[in-house]
Amino acid sequence: MKILHTADWHLGHQLHGHDRRFEHDAFLDWLSDTLKAREIDALLVAGDLFDTANPPASAWQQLYRFLARLRAEMPRLNMVLIGGNHDSPSKLDAPHELLRAFDLHLVGSISRDSEGKLETDRLLVPLQDREGNIAAWCAAVPFLRSSDLRVEQLAEGQDRLIEGVGQVYAEVLAEGRARCGEDLPLIAMGHAYLAAGQLSELSERRVLGGNQHALPAELFAGADYTALGHLHLAQSPAEGVHYSGSPLPLSLAEANYNHQVLEVTFAEGKLAGLERIPVPRAVEMIRLPQSTLDDALKAIASLELPACPQEAQPFLEVRLLLPKPEARIRERILAAIADKPVRLARITTSYQGSGEGLADGRERRRLDELSPTEVFRLCYQRQFEGEPEAGLVASFEEILEQVKESNQ
Questions:
Q1: Does position 158 have pLDDT exceeding 70, yes or no?
Q2: Which GO MF terms are attached to this record (predicted)?
Q3: Which of 22, 197, 227, 394 is the most buried (most CB within 10 A)?
Q4: What is the pLDDT of residues 390-408, one digit of tens each?
Q5: Mean pLDDT, rounded, for 263-291
């Protein structure tokens, strides 16, 4: 059996006001062709299908067109998709019954019965081979919010969030292992931040209330392969545990990432192979080295780019280091690129302090470039002239998650 693992599509994403539909269409076309060419048996998408809890209609259309195309062209393909922290659990669960009629498994949230017992049936999906035989079981656990967990009976000294997540995975994986018996592999899916994971500069957040709530890889010890989402940089924080990474850069800080999907092969119930398949990039990102405005304008003038439709034009980031504020910076840069097939994504400006060069430069960032946690830190620093303690930041992030959940 061959499985393709991907995650963090972020359909509906905008990069500093620029629409990314062209790039997502290109990726989904490539993914469809890849699934057919490689004769994949199961597609696993590990969360963050959308960029926001309220994605535009065009993003839903992209997803549904893709799923309908695959079902028509690959009628025996197993498809399992879970929700991530960017997705709305209720919106993903709404079409569940309709999609299940077409053998499409979209899991936005976990559910419990009237006694609070976890309903594992919906989270355990049989994966069939081309002959229609069950060849593996998939534990499709979506992103777990604090409201999903039952932590009332845990001791005060325990980290309740981590223990609560551990309880969910332990129960689902135990039931999955029982269904697998000794012959079939068990594949776990999740959307989480693991303790050994490497975050990108701007795009991801440590979910579940801060770094002290990073999950241990041991939670997935009962699985033969764990397909994770959330971290945009492809990585393997533990043996058998893999982040596929996002298929396209979701911030300028990710411009140099090697975006990929993972092909996982099982033979005779055992993991037999893992191949990283590079995802072609439909739109390039150009990040000019930090320099003076005059040098940046010269660098722009020297750009030689082929003509292409606007949606395929590269994104440009201009990074400036100035001795003092200058007027009409944006106007001058826009004039310089007026005849260039390139789109201005961002201008970042740092100012030299005591004249000691780059290390002494102070970068000024727009409010819309800051995360809520960064705004909290800056406000704390201004009010109390120091860094907030880690516990206080964690409490803020937990409140932030609760607010987001209440708005979904």
A1: no
A2: 3'-5' exonuclease activity; endonuclease activity
A3: 227
A4: 778 777 877 877 676 666 5
A5: 95
Nearest residue to 165 via CA among 124, 118, 125: 118
CATH architecture of 2-278: 4-Layer Sandwich (3.60)
Q: Sign (positive/negative) of CA torsion 52, 162, 232, 266?
A: negative
Rounded Cα distance, 260 and 281, in Å: 10
Say how far apart CA 147 and CA 382 lie, in whole Å.
Answer: 33
- The string of pLDDT tens digits covering residues 9-34 is 999 999 999 999 999 999 999 999 99
Q: In angstroms, what is the C-alpha Rg of the chain?
A: 23
Q: How far apart are CA 276 and CA 264, in angstroms?
A: 9
Dihedrals phi, psi of 66, to nearest 5 degrees: -65, -50
For the stretch 179-222, pLDDT in tens is 999 899 999 999 998 876 566 555 555 444 444 467 889 999 88
| 188, 220 contact by CB (below 8 A) | yes
State whether residue 3 is helix, strand or coil. strand
The burial of 48, by beta-carbon neighbours within 10 Å (0-12 exposed, 13-18 middle, 19 or more buried), is given as buried
Q: How far is C-alpha 168 from the geometric centre of its chain's CA atoms?
A: 21
Beta pairing partners, 191: 229
Structural domain boundaries in the chain: 2-278, 285-369, 373-408
Contact 243, 197 (CB under 8 A): yes
What is the pTM (predicted TM-score) of this model?
0.84
Q: Which amino acid is at 260?
A: Q
Among 41, 40, 5, 39, residue whose Cα is nearest residue 260? 5
